[in-house]
Design brief:
- The structure is a single chain.
- This protein has helices at 23-31, 46-50, 75-90, 109-116, 130-138, 158-165, 180-190; strands at residues 8-12, 34-39, 60-65, 95-99, 122-125, 149-153, 170-174, 197-200, 208-210, 224-228.
- The radius of gyration is 19 Å and the shape is elongated.
- It is an alpha/beta fold and 235 residues long.
- Strand 2, helix 2 (46-50) and strand 3 (60-65) form a beta-alpha-beta unit.
- It starts with 7 loop residues before the first strand and ends in a 7-residue tail after the last strand.
- The protein has 2 domains: 8-125, 3-Layer(aba) Sandwich (Cobalt-precorrin-4 Transmethylase, domain 1), CATH 3.40.1010; 130-228, 2-Layer Sandwich (Methyltransferase, Cobalt-precorrin-4 Transmethylase, Domain 2), CATH 3.30.950.
Amino acid sequence: MTQPSGRLYGLGIGPGDPELLTLKAYRILQAVPVIAYPTLESGKALARAIVADYISADKIEIPMPLPFSVERSSQPYYDIGAEKIAQYLSAGKDVAVLCEGDPFLYGSFMYIFNRLSQKFSTEVVPGISSTMASACALGVPLTYRNDVLSIMPATLPADILTSRLGVADAAVIIKLGRHFAKVRDVLIELGLFDRALYIERATLPNQRIIPINQLQDPEVTYWSLILIPSQWNRC
């Protein structure tokens, strides 16, 4: 008799605060025998660190090294990670892949999903995204009534950022890092700089909220965003 395959889970584990993990994600994390997660080239595993207190010693762990640079393609790394995960799924073991924020909102799990979801039973558990957590931390509503929210990576060319921000009711610009100066220039050009709010590492112990006009370029981390809330301020 053929052994049934395991089930693949994409677990959204939130932006950083372990208490923002959903009950469903916690339950699955406790139940599965195998846990996979991305690691930085330095070996740090940010996703694992968020839920470290919830991972028991008997779990099988699959670290997945991923490059975070535009100069290096992530495809072969996702191929390797998916192959390792598939081995356990084929052996009948359930596997949970940890993903910061939400798995389907710029989440690393999407690339594992694309490689394995057609072959194995898969469930995606949503998580709180850093964009939503940042609005709460900053204390500003993002949108009102018929407002349209735009989320865009700072890695876009300046002309595209300009065209999209120029028609946005409210916006979130993610993945700032070394692109901050470009984004700042676009915001100034569009007259949006005074509305812009900056936060980094939302909900983590080292979260920082800094007035955007006080920022120095080298300070800005990849794990930061700029939020431009709606101008509607009346109920």
